[in-house]
């Protein structure tokens, strides 16, 4: 991996798998599309077959779950909905679903636009009227997606939302170095010892929970007084939770989510939604910098639909070229590059019976780049392949998995696509850009697929 990371790729080369995952690339090359490795004591089968992958993703909870043997990083990330199983998952998913429904995201549109307008204002002040600005856009895009999630999740409590985000980053930075080390069974017991590291983590967690509980209790009180709070994710979530509690009163002791549950779900919105969306937008800008013809096509469409006005929901649904571009970026540079599942009881997949304890690696990136599923031009940037929708884009049906599949498919996919379309529309309405001479094409894995040396672009005003 170190060797792969030390060598950048030529510009326009999207054959990124050997650089991003050299180990798995070699395994698949040497042993085929269904092969296995040992992860310490755990057998891991990589399965590069869209049909079987869909089968696994749609299997019942008693057959497949998320893996139990998680590293500290995994445990941190797999909290809330993304880590629950069985009935608890079903209950949480039902309560949270309305928060991400299109009609509610529509109400949050002004919040998306305010955050994007701030970015536009910032770049507008930095870029000279005549001439260009060389800029690594990655930090600004990260800031944009943090701002969007703080505004859409917490609305009026936006400032506290930003603080929670800083604390999450602090915790992630504490945990990340420990996740780089090899997994040793029993090692995680160390997290119960009062070491300085554990004390620091616990301090950060306490502050985060205190702020979140404060926001939630204030909101619950306002709702009891009859105030509507439907204009942010937390408000819709609390209303849906209250409704669930009322509907199942007397029928089940286990109704609604507790405040602690809501706290975990709010943290997850940040973790699952921020980095993924920021890399999607960043790679989109890099690729539109590489392919000025697609940048021009996207701008033409955006100006046709919105002129210089703020994007609206109706217009967003009419952006065909922009959608094709975003899908092609999600195909070539999928932010979630693989999924993992663990077999709970002996289960047959593709004619082989796998015993309990086996884990499956479902390599989204490798499937998205395979010529067998996408044709000889699989590793080229060709948004036109999505011109007739997702189902017609691949040679083999159902080979596009950027948001997973089955019942656990990403709950935030509409949220992300709305955010990316608004962000891109507003950027292209105001600026043109190309790759800077200092840009180095070096995609690498850092939880998501990141540009290792940043996203240096040369921006000019329109
Ligand atoms: C480009 C952006 C995004 C990508 C590529 C992405 C990808 C994914 C994938 C692949 C899964 C399935 C994981 C699995 O089956 O193991 C997932 C689940 C999930 N995502 Fe996203 N996601 C994105 C944005 C978001 C956003 C914006 C949010 C929320 C604000 C979000 C919240 C979630 C949640 C809560 C789950 C768990 C769903 C469940 O287990 O029922 N995601 N996402």
Automatic annotation (TrEMBL):
Assigned keywords, A-Z: Oxidoreductase
Q: Which domain of life is it from?
A: Eukaryota
Q: What is its EC number?
A: 1.14.14.115
What is this protein called in UniProt?
11-oxo-beta-amyrin 30-oxidase protein
Which organism is this protein's natural source?
Answer: Dioscorea alata (Purple yam)
């Amino acid at each position: 991996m170190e060797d792969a990371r030390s060598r950048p790729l030529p510009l326009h080369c999207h054959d990124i798998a050997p650089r991003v995952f050299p180990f798995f690339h070699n395994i698949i090359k040497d042993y085929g599309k269904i092969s296995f490795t040992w992860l310490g004591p755990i057998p891991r089968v990589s399965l590069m077959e869209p049909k079987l992958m869909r089968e696994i993703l749609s299997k019942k909870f008693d057959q497949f779950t998320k893996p139990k043997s998680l590293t500290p990083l995994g445990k941190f990330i797999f909290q809330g909905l993304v880590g629950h199983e069985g009935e608890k998952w079903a209950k949480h998913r039902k309560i949270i679903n309305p928060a991400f429904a299109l009609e509610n995201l529509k109400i949050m549109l002004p919040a998306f636009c305010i955050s994007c307008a701030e970015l536009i204002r910032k770049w507008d002040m930095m870029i000279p009227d005549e001439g260009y600005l060389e800029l690594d856009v990655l930090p600004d895009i990260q800031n944009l997606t943090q701002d969007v999630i703080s505004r859409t999740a917490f609305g009026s409590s936006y400032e506290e939302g930003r603080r929670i985000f800083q604390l999450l980053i602090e915790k992630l930075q504490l945990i990340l170095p420990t996740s780089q080390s090899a997994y040793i069974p029993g090692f995680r017991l160390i997290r119960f010892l009062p070491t300085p590291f554990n004390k620091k983590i616990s301090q950060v967690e306490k502050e985060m929970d205190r702020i979140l509980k404060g926001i939630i209790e204030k909101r619950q009180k306002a709702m009891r007084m009859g105030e509507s709070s439907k204009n942010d994710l937390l408000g819709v979530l609390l209303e849906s939770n209250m409704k669930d509690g009322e509907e199942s009163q007397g029928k089940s002791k286990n109704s609604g989510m507790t405040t602690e549950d809501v706290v975990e779900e709010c943290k997850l919105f940040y973790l699952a939604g921020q980095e993924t969306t920021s890399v999607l937008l960043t790679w989109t800008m890099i690729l539109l910098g590489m392919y000025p013809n697609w940048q021009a096509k996207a701008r033409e469409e955006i100006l046709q639909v919105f002129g210089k006005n703020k994007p609206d929901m109706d217009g967003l649904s009419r952006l065909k070229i922009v959608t094709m571009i975003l899908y092609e970026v999600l195909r070539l540079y999928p932010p979630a590059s693989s999924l993992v599942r663990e077999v709970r009881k002996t289960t047959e997949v593709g004619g082989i019976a796998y015993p309990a304890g086996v884990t499956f690696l479902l390599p989204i990136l490798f499937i998205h780049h395979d010529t067998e599923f996408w044709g000889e031009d699989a590793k080229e940037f060709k948004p036109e392949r999505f011109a007739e929708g997702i189902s017609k884009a691949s040679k083999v049906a159902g080979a596009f998995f950027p948001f997973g599949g089955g019942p656990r498919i990403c709950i935030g996919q509409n949220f992300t696509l709305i955010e990316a379309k608004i962000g891109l529309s507003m950027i292209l309405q105001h600026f043109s850009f190309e790759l800077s001479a200092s840009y180095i094409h070096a995609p690498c894995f850092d939880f998501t697929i990141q540009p290792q040396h940043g996203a240096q672009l040369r921006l000019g005003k329109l």
